[in-house]
Write a structure and sequence with these properties.
Strand content: 25-35%
Distance between the termini: 44 Å
Radius of gyration: 20 Å
Mean pLDDT: 80
Shape: flat
Number of strands: 7
Oligomer: single chain
């Protein structure tokens, strides 16, 4: 069983899962992972991310540099955290959607007595809030329990909301 330390629903998480699944499904043979094919898949993955594998190592300063926004001002990357809870009471805030969902599902089973549950987006956007639906036998009920992504900025940006 996987114990992911990243959000597989995020754009970066989807890329990581895609690389892993490519290796598991297309490269792995009966004896494990073929090293040459894994290296080729990893090099292609780096290329798709815009990393020149023939260039020097990426300096930490270039990673921390602000990314220019469309108006030429600095744009600071935002960290996203995920809050689990009902509409009025937060259960907890987590670095991954999966961890927040796990907390909410545990609440639904232990407090609400649900047999099982599933998630549906409350908005058509896949990175938006997701709402928990619980099952009692054959009956399905919507809840006020949700996992909501929250953007956290590194510092105050006057133009962020403009």
């Amino acid at each position: 069983m996987h114990h992911l330390k990243f959000d597989p629903a995020s754009p970066l998480g989807q890329r990581i899962v895609g690389l892993f699944n490519q290796i598991k499904n297309d490269i792995e043979d009966g004896d494990g992972w073929n090293g040459v094919d894994v290296v080729e898949a990893l090099l292609a993955w780096f290329e798709a991310l815009g990393i020149d594998t023939d260039a020097d190592a990426i300096a930490a300063a270039s990673i921390a540099s602000p990314i220019p926004g469309p108006n030429g001002h600095e744009r600071h990357e935002r960290m996203v955290v995920y809050r689990a809870g009902d509409r009025s009471v937060p259960f907890g805030t987590y670095s991954t959607r999966a961890a927040a969902q796990h907390h909410a599902e545990d609440h639904a089973r232990t407090v609400l007595g649900a047999d099982s549950c599933h998630w549906e987006p409350s908005e058509p956007e896949p990175d938006e809030e997701q709402v928990l639906y619980v099952h009692y036998g054959r009956a399905e009920c919507g809840t006020c329990i949700a996992v909501t992504p929250i953007s956290v900025q590194e510092r105050y940006d006057l133009d962020a909301d403009a």
